[in-house]
Design brief:
This protein is α+β, with helices and mostly antiparallel strands. The protein is built from 17 helices and 26 strands. The strands form 7 sheets. Strands 3-5-1-12-9-10-11 form a 7-stranded mixed beta sheet, with helices on both faces. A 5-stranded mixed beta sheet has the order 7-15-14-13-8. Strands 21-20-19-25 form a 4-stranded mixed beta sheet, with helices on one face. Helix 13 packs across helix 14 (442-454), helix 15 (513-525) packs parallel to helix 16 and helix 16 (552-580) packs across helix 17. It is flat, with a radius of gyration of 29 Å.
C-alpha cells in the first residue's frame, strides 16, 4: 500500500512521484491477458499461404486437396472474401493528388510483394491449417518487379500498379523563401545525401486477432492486439456492412506496438471475414517469420540536403529532396505519406532561418508496405538537420554547441511559424541548450577529449536538437477524411465502496497508461492510487476516443481524466456540503477523507458519502440528485500539435587505441 503523503508534499500529489505501475505485478507473474492466450468455445485457427514472388499474376489456385483434409473447415481465396468485404484505399483528402490502388483482404489476380497472403485456411488447430497450406497449388506468372527507388522513378519503369501513370504515390513541394538567391550569396554551403534503411518494430507480442461473429445476433466481437480499438470498430463496421453498434473491439493487454499495430493488415481483415463466413470464432497469431514479411516497415528514405550559411555561421537557407519508398500500397487508414510529410516539415525546425524548399516524392515498389512507426519522421528529420549543422560547424571552424546556440530560435520569439508551415506556441531551445551545457560539463569533456586524442584514444561528443510534435488535433487526420478521433473520453465514478473507477479511451501497450491515468485521478480526487481502477481498451464499455499514439495518451487522455475527475470531486464536495451543512468551498478531500479546507481536520470519509448517496438518498435534502458519475470528452484546439523542445546529447565513452601505423 502506498504510504500517505507527508506534509512536505502538496496535498494528494501523485504527479512527479516514482510509483510502481498498478499492473506490473500481474504482468510479471505471467497473468497478462493477451490475445495470443485467448481460447473461446468452438474456436478455429487460421493460417495463410504466402506468395514467393514479389510481383506475379495469379493464373490459378487449386484447393481441392486442402479442403478434404480432416480438420479443415474452410479454404478461402480473395474472391470468397471480396463477396462480403468492400475494398479500401489508403489516401487522405488533404494530400492532394495522392493515389493508391484499392485493397482487399486477399488478392484477386495479382501479388505485389513476396510474402503477401494469397489463400486462407481455417482448421481445428494451427498445425492442421499449416498442413493444408502445403496441399494448395498456385500457378503464378512472373511480372516485372520494381524494388529500388531509382528504378521506380525511371521513365518507362514497370508499374507496380497497372493503370497508373507512374510509380509515384504522392508528390509535394514546400517553398517559403528566396532559396536560390540565399544559396547564390552564401559564404558557405554544405551538402550531403543520406540513406536510411528499412526496419520494423519487433514487439514482444506479435500481431494477434480473434474474430467472433455471432450470426444469430448479427454481432461481431473482435479481440485485437491494437492501439486503436475504436478505429477498427469503425473499419470492420463499414467494410463488412455491420452496424457499428453491433461491432465490439476488445484490446486488453498488448505486448508492445510502437505504431506497428495501428494499421489495417490484410490478414486481420481476412480473419474477420472468415469468422463471418463460418459463424465461429477464428484466431490468427502472426509468427516471427510472417512478421518480417507482413508487418509494416518504416523509414525507407533517401534524402539530399543542402544548407547555406553566412560568413559568421548564421543559417540562411535549406534545400531538401526526400525520396520515400512505401511498398506496393499506401497503408490504410493513416496512409504511408505521413512519414515523409513529417520529415520535410520537421527538418530545420529548431533553427532560425526563413528560406526553405523541400520536395517529397513517395514511391511505390514491390515490397511490403511502410508506414507510421515510433516517432514518425522525427529521427530522419533530426539526423539530416543535425548532420548538416555539424558539417557547417566543421567547415567554419565553430564548436558544435556554439553554432547551435547561435542559430536556435530565441525563447522569447514565440509564437513562431516555421518555414515549413508548422505553428509553434512556446519552445525553449536556448534554455535547454544552456542547461545541457551545464549538465554535461561540456568544456571539461572537450578538454578531456583533446587530451585523450593525443594518446590515440578517441571519444565522441554528439549533440542533437529537435522539435517533437505530439497530441495531434483534428487538423491532422480528420481533415483528410479519416475517421480517427482527435478527442478522448473518460467516465469517472465514485463507487459505493468509496473507490474511483475510470473508464478511458486511451489504451495500454506497456508504456504505463494505467499508471499515468490512475496517478492523475488519485491526485485530483484526493485518495490513494490503489483505490483507483482504470479500465481501457473495450469499445463496449469505454467512451469513444482516439486512443494511444503520437504521445497523446497522457497529453489528451490525461487531460480528459484530469477534467473529468475535477468535475467528480466538485460533485462529491457538493454532497458533502449538504450533509455537513457547509459551503463546498470550505471543504477538500485528502487521503480519501473530506476535510476542512483550512485546518485539514477530518470530517467524514468519502466512502460514507457514497453510502448515503447510493443507499440513503432519502436523507438528503429534497430535490438532491447525487451525480457520482461524470462523463467527459476533451480534444485539443487551435495548434495542430503542441510541440515540446527536445535536446539530446551523447558522450560516447567507447574507446579505441589506434595502432601506431594509423594516420
Amino acid at each position: 500500500m502506498t504510504a500517505p503523503l507527508t506534509s512536505l508534499d502538496r496535498p494528494n500529489s501523485y504527479i512527479g512521484r516514482s510509483l510502481p505501475r498498478p499492473n506490473a505485478k500481474r504482468l510479471l507473474a505471467g497473468r497478462g491477458r493477451y490475445v495470443s492466450d485467448l481460447r473461446l468455445p468452438r474456436m478455429l485457427y487460421a493460417a495463410f499461404l504466402r506468395s514467393p514472388h514479389a510481383h506475379a499474376k495469379i493464373v490459378s489456385i487449386k484447393t481441392d486437396e486442402a479442403r478434404t483434409l480432416e480438420g479443415v473447415h474452410l479454404v478461402a481465396t480473395g474472391a470468397d472474401l471480396a463477396k462480403i468485404c468492400t475494398p479500401w484505399t489508403g489516401t487522405l483528402d488533404h494530400f492532394k493528388g495522392m493515389t493508391s490502388a484499392p485493397q482487399l483482404p486477399l488478392p484477386l489476380d495479382r501479388v505485389v510483394w513476396a510474402g503477401q497472403a494469397v489463400v486462407a485456411v481455417v482448421a481445428e488447430n494451427r498445425a492442421t491449417a499449416e498442413d493444408a497450406l502445403e496441399l494448395i497449388e498456385v500457378d503464378y506468372e512472373d511480372l516485372p518487379i520494381v524494388v529500388d527507388i531509382d528504378g521506380a522513378r525511371e521513365a518507362g519503369s514497370p508499374l507496380v500498379n497497372p493503370g497508373s501513370a507512374n510509380n509515384v504515390c504522392f508528390r509535394s513541394q514546400l517553398d517559403s523563401g528566396a532559396v536560390d538567391d540565399a544559396f547564390a550569396h552564401a559564404a558557405h554551403v554544405v551538402e550531403e545525401e543520406f540513406s536510411f534503411g528499412r526496419h520494423t518494430a519487433v514487439t514482444l507480442e506479435p500481431r494477434a486477432i480473434v474474430a467472433d461473429y455471432d450470426p444469430a445476433a448479427g454481432m461481431l466481437t473482435v479481440h485485437h492486439g491494437t492501439q486503436t480499438p475504436y478505429q477498427f470498430q469503425d473499419l470492420y463496421s463499414r467494410h463488412y456492412g455491420i452496424p457499428e453498434a453491433r461491432v465490439r473491439v476488445i484490446a486488453t493487454d498488448i505486448g508492445g506496438s510502437f505504431g506497428m499495430k495501428l494499421h489495417v493488415y490484410h490478414e486481420d481483415m481476412a480473419v474477420v471475414g472468415l469468422s463471418i463466413l463460418l459463424g465461429r470464432p477464428v484466431k490468427y497469431v502472426v509468427d516471427r517469420i510472417e512478421s518480417f514479411v507482413s508487418d509494416i516497415h518504416a523509414r525507407d528514405h533517401r534524402v539530399r540536403a543542402r544548407m547555406a550559411l553566412d560568413a559568421k555561421g548564421e543559417i540562411l537557407a535549406m534545400d531538401v529532396l526526400d525520396l520515400t519508398a512505401i511498398g506496393a500500397f499506401s497503408t490504410y487508414p493513416r496512409t504511408s505519406v505521413v512519414e515523409g510529410n513529417q520529415v520535410i516539415r520537421l527538418i530545420g525546425a529548431p533553427y532560425r532561418f526563413r528560406n526553405y524548399r523541400a520536395t517529397l516524392e513517395v514511391i511505390f515498389q514491390n515490397k511490403v508496405q511502410t508506414s507510421q512507426y515510433r516517432a514518425v519522421g522525427h529521427p530522419i528529420a533530426c539526423a539530416v538537420t543535425e548532420r548538416m549543422v555539424d558539417m557547417a560547424a566543421a567547415k567554419l571552424g565553430l564548436d558544435p554547441f556554439a553554432i547551435r546556440a547561435q542559430n536556435v530560435i530565441a525563447d522569447d520569439a514565440y509564437p513562431q511559424t516555421s518555414p515549413t508551415g508548422y505553428r509553434f506556441e512556446a519552445l525553449s531551445h536556448q534554455a535547454c541548450l544552456r542547461r545541457l551545457h551545464e549538465m554535461m560539463g561540456y568544456d571539461g569533456l572537450r578538454a578531456e577529449q583533446a587530451e585523450l586524442r593525443k594518446r590515440g584514444i578517441y571519444r565522441g561528443i554528439g549533440i542533437a536538437a529537435f522539435v517533437e510534435i505530439t497530441n495531434p488535433s483534428p487538423a491532422f487526420y480528420g481533415v483528410g477524411g479519416a475517421r480517427i478521433s482527435s478527442q478522448d473520453g473518460a467516465i469517472v465514478s465514485l463507487t459505493p465502496s468509496g473507490e474511483v473507477r475510470c473508464l478511458i479511451s486511451v489504451t495500454e501497450q506497456g508504456q504505463g497508461t494505467e499508471a499515468i491515468i490512475s496517478q492523475i485521478v488519485a491526485d485530483q480526487v484526493g485518495l490513494a492510487q490503489e483505490h483507483v481502477k482504470v479500465i481501457t481498451g473495450d469499445t463496449e464499455v469505454t467512451p469513444h476516443g482516439g486512443a494511444t499514439w503520437a504521445c497523446r495518451g497522457a497529453g489528451i487522455g490525461g487531460e480528459t481524466a484530469l477534467q473529468a475527475t475535477r468535475a467528480l470531486k466538485r460533485n462529491i464536495l457538493e454532497i458533502a456540503a449538504l450533509i455537513l451543512q457547509e459551503q463546498p468551498s470550505a471543504l477538500d478531500i485528502v487521503n480519501g477523507d473530506v476535510v476542512d479546507a483550512g485546518t485539514r481536520n477530518q470530517r467524514m470519509p468519502i466512502s460514507e458519502i457514497a453510502r448515503i448517496a447510493y443507499f440513503r438518498s432519502d436523507t438528503l435534502p429534497p430535490g438532491t440528485q447525487a451525480q457520482l458519475t461524470v462523463s467527459h470528452h476533451f480534444a485539443p484546439q487551435g495548434y495542430p500539435f503542441p510541440s515540446p523542445t527536445a535536446f539530446r546529447a551523447a558522450h560516447w565513452r567507447s574507446m579505441s587505441k589506434l595502432a601506431s601505423s594509423s594516420s
